Structures are given as C-alpha cells and as structure tokens.
Amino acid sequence: MNNGDFREGLRQGFPVIVAASPFGALFGALAVDNGFSIADAVFMSATVYAGASQMVGIELFGNNVQPWLIVLSIFAVNFRHVLYSASIARHIRHYTPLQKFFAFFLLIDPQYAESERRAERGLPVTFSWYLGFALIIYFLWLVTTAIGAVFGQMVGDPQAIGLDVLLPIYFLGLVLGFRKRDRFLPVVATSAVASVAAIHFVGSPWHVSIGALAGVVLAACFPSERAETEGEPVEQGN
Amino acid sequence: MDASQHLDLIYIILAAAVATFATRVGGYVLITQLKHIPPRLEAALNAVPAAVLTTLVAPAFVYGGLDVAAAMVLAFAVGLRFSTLRMLLAGWVVVMAIRYAFL
Predict the structure, then answer these.
(1) Pick from A43, A104, A157, B47: most CB atoms within 10 A?
(2) Chain B 10-69, CB below 8 Å of chain A: which residues?
C-alpha cells in the first residue's frame, strides 16, 4: 500500500460523497417507506452498492413485483457497468485477483470516471489510490443510508412531506442523463407509451419489463451507423 | 412484513448483489474474449437504461395525480440545464406548494 496515493484517493472521493449523500439518505428513507427495516436498507447499500438500481429495487419491492423481475430490473439498470469494466481493464491489469475482486465490486460511476481521468493525466491507477477513493464513498454511503432510514421511520406519511414525488423525478433525471445517446427520443417515447398501456391492460408488475422490452427492441431494429465506427458512449449519472 | 417475506427480501438483495457484481466484472471478462460487438446488440444495450427507467417515470406522470405531474414537468425543465439535485428540489417545492398552499 502507498499511503500518499491512498490519502489522495480519500481526498478526491470526499466531494463525490457530498454530492451523493442526499441520494443515500433518500434511498434509506424510501426503503423504509417500502417495507424495509433500517438494517435491510444498510444491507442493500453494502451488498448491491449501486444507487440508481437500489432505488429501482425498493420501488418494485414496494409494488410486490415478482422477485426474479426485481433482480432482472436491477441487473438491467446496472448493465452499463459492463462497459465500465471493459474499458477500465487496461488500467488495472496489474492488480492481483483479490484486488480486482474489490475493484470491480466498488466500480460505481464516479469511480470509473475518476479512474479514467487519472489515467488520462498520465498517473498510474494504483490500487492504493483506487481503494482510498472507493472506501470513503462506500463508508459514507452506508452512513447516509442509515441516517435516511432512521429519518424515514420517524416520518409516517411520505406524501405529507412530499417524499413520494422524489423518486419519479430522480428517475426522470437519470433518463435525461442518457439523452445524448442514439435513438434516445424514440426509445423513451416507445417505452413510455408501452409501459402506460401495459399498466392499463396487463397490470402493475409487468409494465416495467414490457415497457423496457419495447424500447430495447426498437433500438435493436434501428442500429445507427455511428455505433459501428465509434466506441460506446459513457454516460454520467449515478 | 412476516419472517418468510423478510427472508425473501434478503434473498432478493443477495441475488441483486450478485447480478450487479456480474455487470461490474462482465465487461472485463468479455473484452478479453470478444473483439467486436454486433451493431444491433450494441444499439439494444445502449437503449437498456433509458428504456427501463422510462417505465418507472411515465406511469407516475400519468397516474400520479395533477400535483405530481406538475412537479415532474417543472423538474424536467430544470433537468435540461441543471443537476438532478436541483430537479428534486424544484419538484419537491412545487408539490409541497400545491398540497399546502392551494388545497
């Protein structure tokens, strides 16, 4: 371990967790609102460790969606990480297998983005730096989850303090984060119409898979020419 | 939630953790095998996040009530220029204003 690199990682990770802490607290509060205990919420933050997909998971769990569909949806929301791990491979090839295990477990959006930036500046992506950056975010993610869950348990009716509107807006923000992608508007329009129609005609749990499938199939029918020549775009967001 | 439901939840969380880890290690494994991703597959994969997330947004907009719809419209406008945090703040202010000032 290199202490200097580790401390530099800690320092650079701090602003990230400041920005993410409202979402950690929001997740904790909404998890409790959807039937989780405080320990469940912290357990999910500690094991899944992927903010947006955790929100999707509690929302679906609260709606009594079938377990396999909850897991599949979390998998789908996190699918972008495949691109991250493919692209970060060249910077962390020198890690030991155990170091790689931890590196991949902790590979969240800002971790990926900062690692790429560090490599671009010509600095080595050492495991010490990587771990320092990751650990401060990971630790405070658990703390803010617990704080939010405790707060959420004290709040009886989420509608009374406007909590119910936050999740759809949070997801709307995530959707907007992908707006530079090819076929964004047709995909969103197709999935929106299909999901609303599916809620109407089929019922609640199924609107997620039906709506998502409609948008994905549409995209597969119209691959852009750009995709063949350029690399995969990497979005921001959580 | 009774004990068996709670055990289900623990299993769901663990399965989700494994699925998430698979996405985080999958690209590394694939990149050493696959030289070229077919354009159709790539287009489909690219569409996955927006398509999934939209299905969580659209029904709330349509069935969530006028106060939620109004908050989402404003949050959308804010989101075109500003961060998600400001979207949340703007939407929350709108929904609270409608619920407490006008009702």
Answers:
(1) B47
(2) 10-17, 19-28, 30-32, 39-64, 67-68
